[in-house]
Design brief:
The protein is an alpha/beta fold. Helix content is about 40%, strand content about 20%. It is built from 13 helices and 12 strands. The chain has a 7-stranded mixed β-sheet, with helices on both faces. Strands 7-9-8-11-12 form a 5-stranded mixed β-sheet, with helices on both faces. Strand 1, helix 3 and strand 2 form a beta-alpha-beta unit. The N and C termini lie far apart (about 40 Å).
């Protein structure tokens, strides 16, 4: 793995995932003259400040023109450079969809798309800035690896993995200050391999991005309050998905719930459902996410609560899946 980039859990609590991406890229760009950052007038918003400090000559601003950014990146990649494109998820997946398809994926060039402000993490900006269909779009693109890091350490791992491996990558990160999931970068990150963050045998929750922390907290609560053993898988790689982990969960727990800050159509839930169906595994499956609706406008944590993809929503879904009443007494002191 690439890297001289080091920081600790205290640092991570003070940095957004986007800022950690900027620091990881700055470390890479100082060591490899072939690496270049490209932005569509969003260098500040996508946290390229550290890159600008160390190598301003290798930060290219194409202006508010995402389609042009992808074309420039494809040309540079064909010339032997390694471009990292920084833009909002909603724009890198939808506004530049044709260029992503034809310029990047069809030509299978060595370009890395860092898609920030993912899901509803920029919730107050409204539907134009919500990225709840980008996984459905990018999953369908041949040659494209799709990663959704759960926290800052995983963001650094994903950026390093994208640099180390040839081909187009789409790394989806949030705008805000995500909760810290891991203590350091050495937890066994591998592209295409899920990470178990909580053991369990009764039911499996498969989550990605900001929902992984929520799923782990829900699992802890259910273990302590209900005695339910919830397996939580961090499915950081949406494509290629870890089919073996899905098969094992279906066989060993018999119940699967997927959780994502994305439409339930075409994203993590769909990928898991496809894997289960193709394997012929018998298990119950429930998909938590945006239920074929545009997301409400508001703060990210409020949207997650309303949509039911926070810890409370996951707790309710697990209890429902296992046939357990949400509240059997009048004492609400034990609620999250």
């Amino acid at each position: 793995m690439a890297g001289g980039f080091v920081y600790n859990a205290v640092d991570q609590t003070e940095l957004s995932t986007a800022e950690i991406y900027g620091k990881a890229l700055a470390d890479i760009i100082m060591r490899d003259q072939k690496v270049v950052a490209i932005t569509a007038d969003l260098a500040k918003s996508t946290k390229l400040g550290d890159v600008l400090k160390v190598c301003p000559e290798r930060v290219i601003n194409v202006g508010i023109a995402e389609q042009d950014m992808f074309g420039v990146a494809a040309g540079m990649a064909r010339a032997g450079m390694i471009p990292f494109l920084s833009g909002f998820s909603a724009f890198t997946s939808m506004r530049a969809c044709d260029q992503l398809h034809t310029d990047i994926c069809y030509q299978n060039v060595n370009a890395k798309i860092i898609a920030t402000h993912a899901g509803t993490s920029f919730g107050q900006a409204g539907s134009t800035h919500h990225a709840i269909t980008d996984l459905a779009i990018t999953r369908a693109m041949p040659n494209l690896t799709v990663i959704v890091p759960a926290d800052g350490f995983e963001t650094a791992n994903a950026v390093n993995a994208a640099y180390d491996n040839f081909g187009p990558y789409y790394i989806r990160i949030n705008r805000g200050f995500d909760r810290v999931l891991y203590e350091n970068m050495d937890y066994g990150f591998e592209v295409g391999k899920a990470v178990e963050v909580h053991p369990g045998t009764d039911i499996t929750v498969i989550a990605c991005g900001s929902c992984v922390f929520q799923a782990r907290e829900a699992a802890k609560f259910l273990r302590n309050v209900d005695g339910i053993k919830v397996r939580v898988l961090n499915m950081h790689t949406i494509k290629p998905i870890d089919r073996d982990a899905v098969f094992k969960a279906a066989e060993e727990t018999g119940h699967i719930i997927t959780v994502e800050d994305h439409s339930v159509i075409g994203g993590l839930g769909s990928a898991v459902a496809e894997a289960v169906a193709e394997a012929g595994k018998l298990c119950t499956l429930k998909r938590l996410g945006h239920q074929d609706k545009f997301a409400p406008i508001g703060l990210h944590e409020d949207i997650m609560s309303e949509v039911g993809i926070d810890a409370n929503g996951i707790i309710a879904a697990v209890r429902e899946a296992l046939g357990i009443d949400f509240e059997e007494d009048d004492n609400w002191d034990d609620e999250v």
